[in-house]
Specification:
Elements (H helix, E strand, L loop, with lengths): L1 E6 L8 H10 L12 H9 L3 E4 L11 H12 L6 E6 L1 H12 L6 E7 L20 H6 L2 E7 L8 H9 L4 E5 L11 H9 L1
Parallel strand pairs: 1-2, 1-3, 3-4, 4-5, 5-6
């Protein structure tokens, strides 16, 4: 069975006061828990030949790289060689940084980054920003795919070019109508995983 580990997004702040301000000003959506996105349906779309693991990352509203690194490493230890890694938004930035700084104990078949900030983020934390060199990521990340949308209101489309410059072997996928990729279905990503 092929394994797919999905790291979802989150928020990270430069200071605790910035985090408190975010909590005071963030709009509350009472229907938030009822909305499904592509991550929730990925297992069903890929079928019985795939095991999709979607860990809850520690404190995703005020994420810290060291905490995520520890939790990710504990999950990786339980996986098989040939794992497919997917990171959405801050989760993608985390994977790019982790695979650039750390030696991963498993062979990675592919890494798919969806709307992942490279070295710019709408908040002021720098913990999850990509390293200057992504050479180690290119060596141990398997087949690398980058997914960006020109109408993303959260992550500027210009972040794609930064990844392309640092990862010239990556496959880029551009959309014009996906926003921050919070849609219920993501058939192109499913097709790419099935083709690996």
């Amino acid at each position: 069975m092929k394994q797919v580990l999905v790291i979802p997004g989150g928020s990270s702040f430069g200071s605790y006061e910035d985090y408190l301000r975010y909590l005071r000003e963030r709009p509350i959506d009472l229907d938030f828990g009822s909305k499904k996105d592509w991550k929730a349906s990925l297992s069903e779309r890929l079928g019985s030949g795939y095991q999709v693991i979607l860990p809850r990352m520690p404190n995703r509203d005020n994420a810290r790289y060291e905490e995520w690194k520890l939790w990710f490493k504990r999950h990786i230890e339980l996986l098989e060689d040939g794992v497919i890694l997917i990171g959405h938004s801050l989760g993608g930035s985390f994977l790019a940084k982790y695979l650039s700084k750390e030696n991963i104990a498993k062979r990675v078949r592919a890494t798919l980054l969806v709307a992942a900030p490279c070295d710019t983020f709408r908040l002021d934390s720098v913990e999850f920003l990509a390293e200057d060199s992504l050479e180690r990521f290119a060596k141990q990340g398997g087949a690398i795919h980058l997914y960006f949308s020109t109408d993303d209101p959260v992550i500027p489309y210009s972040e794609l070019k930064k990844y392309q410059d640092k990862l010239p072997g990556a496959v880029s996928h551009t959309f014009d109508d996906r926003g921050h990729f919070n849609q219920e279905e993501f058939p192109e990503l499913v097709a790419d995983i099935l083709s690996l």
